[in-house]
Sequence to fold (112 residues):
Amino acid sequence: MLAGAATAVAVAGALLALADTATPLRAPCTLFFLLMAPAVAIAAALRGLDPFGRAVAALAGSVAVNMLVAQGMLAVHRWSARGGLVAVTGLSLVLLLLVLLRERISGKRPQK
Fold:
């Protein structure tokens, strides 16, 4: 139930930021989305670690992804809050899809 509530808050944050609504909930919900979307994708890739180590590594990786996206937008002089949100979402989805693809491929291989 807690995961469902977190997902709802994250999706609400992304939608509020993309719609550019002037509500006081936009900033905290969007920040939650920007931290949790890459963290979930990175945590899925690090299934071999213990839970605490995976959580710490996923949050650190999430901060790194956000900083790299921001630095990239600043480097090309194309700063945009919506663009950053879309870029972080895209990177998170690509990472999550790669993890799912790896699991699917490794599941079909015969084990020695």
